Amino acid sequence: MTLETIFGPGTLLGDEPALMIAGERRVLTDVVSTPVINPATGGVIAEVPHASEETVDEAVTRAAVAQRAWARRTHQERAEILARARDLIELHSEEIARIVTLEQGKPLEHARGEMQAAQNFFDFAVSQKYRNIGEMVATESGEQLLVREEPIGVVAAILPWNFPAAIFCRKVAPALMAGNAIVVKPAELTPLSALALAQVLDAAGLPAGLLSVVCGPGRETGSRLIDHPSVGMVTMTGSTRGGREILARAADKIIPVSLELGGKAPFIVFADANLEQAAKDAVEARMWNAGQVCTCNEITYVDESIYDEFAALVARHVAAITPDDPLVDGSPMGPLVSERERDKVEAMVKEAVQQGATVRVGGGRPGGAQFEAGSWFQPTMLTGVTSDMTIASTEVFGPVLSLASFHDYDDLIAKANSTPFGLSAYVYSSNLHTVMRVIDDLEFGEIYVNKAGPERQQGFHTGWKASGLGGDDGAHGYERYLRRKTTYVGYGPAYGQ
Fold it and tell me: Could you write out the DSSP letters of every residue in 288-355?
């Protein structure tokens, strides 16, 4: 079976998997490969070759050469190419969305939304052609002190599997617009969307060498990439464990890193909240992408005076979600990305029950022949969750909503801030005083008030504590791909002129 058999003739991926090295499709044979599995069926979509050490070295070396010429281009010239890439992503969005669905498992409708986000990241990067690229600082007469932006050079990007297309664009667009070259290592589970997007950028006229996609395991291919002496920055979205390993490797080279890591988002509901809206949003913020999002509602804290009422509302919404084939129009939820991830989630639910939680809805694999193969797990709701349970402190990358109660304000803040993570939080209240007080007291980098996510490309998706360093979006994220050069210029009589 070829890729064209699955995705149709003329697919961006060609008839067989190939790496994208410096603008060239590189078909590798007689090398180790990783199967790409359709999580809805358990069937193999493709075998993607691993990049050898020599291939990684070639990708970085050619990137370093190409970057020097790219950095000398004007912002307007770079923006023109990225604008064409944005338009071509829109043109091919349906094909790439289908690739995302088949390799990652999210419903096609949600994958289409991911492709809109991918375009938005390029759109924001293009807007930076108008940015101030330096500053003049006050100094003495006859002297100018200039601080200007410079690209870093070659960026290594490590991608996760939950949003393989959007996060590719989230990193590639600002890196290129800032004048860098970038070598991307996609997740082993979802490499096809990155390879397809690399083809789009090549078709947009991106100069050869500026972008490569190298596939393989993180501990092999990823480590080779990060350790390469010509790599000047690492940007990674993924687990906190992986982030720590990357930070340690980057420390040896003393290069900057941007880490978007895990989360344990509290979803806080006060007694004066709009309970219908809060219940709907609590479920949406938990079940989005089958719970495989770092900003997901990880534990819902509800004022004890409304706990039972709110639990009934949430249970109704959770029970209404019926997983279905992600390629079927209107499917609300697909499978988890792999059997390994499904098994981890199932084990966490079982442990929570052993520790005293109650399964109110779901709790296992859906019934029926359709769900016997693949990595399916029911939308699940747990009640009676307490802070001493493992599920209350460990990130759950699956469709499991945990409901806990709080007694008073101090009790709530202590529970919410007890996690080592500090990415996102949600607050629902109609009292402005309460809302602003909670915003001040929560130790999280991103807070949503009376609304669910996702984050916007013009914002700054940044985590505190174990949730990361930096972020890739918005003006602050763009600046991660830059360094600064300070120049003192003397002129006039004082300098013998």
Answer: GGGG--TTSEEEEEEEGGGHHHHHHHHHHHHHT-----TTSTT------S-HHHHHHHHHHHHHHHHT
Active site (annotated) includes residue 294: yes
Mean pLDDT, each 10-residue run in order, the chain (497 residues): 78 86 85 93 94 96 98 98 98 97 98 97 96 91 93 98 97 98 98 97 97 95 96 96 94 95 97 98 97 96 98 98 95 97 97 98 94 97 96 96 97 96 97 97 97 89 92 93 95 76
Q: Residue 155: in which H helix or E strand, if any?
A: strand 154-158
**What percentage of the chain's residues is helix, strand, coil (to nearest 5)?**
40, 20, 35
Domain co-membership, 428 together with 474: no
- What's the structural domain count of the chain? 2
* Domain assignment of residue 81, yes or no: yes
Q: Are residues 254 and 301 in the same domain?
A: no
Helix, strand, or coil (residue 382) = strand
- The answer to the question of residue 89 being in a domain is yes
Q: Is the pTM of this model over 0.90?
A: yes
Question: Active-site residue among 58, 103, 114, 260?
Answer: 260
With beta carbons less than 8 A apart as the criterion, state whether 187 and 107 touch.
no
Q: Which two tokens stand for residue 70?
A: 């790219």
Considering the domain boundaries, does residue 461 fall inside one? Answer: no
Query: Residue 331 belongs to what domain range?
Result: 265-449
Query: Does 322 share its domain with 222?
Result: no
3-state secondary structure of 133: coil
Residues in the chain: 497
Whether 393 is in a domain gets the answer yes
Q: From the candidates 114, 294, 296, 298, give the one annotated as an active-site residue.
A: 294
d(CA 38, CA 115): 19
Instruction: Respond yes or no: is residue 339 known to be catalytic.
Output: no
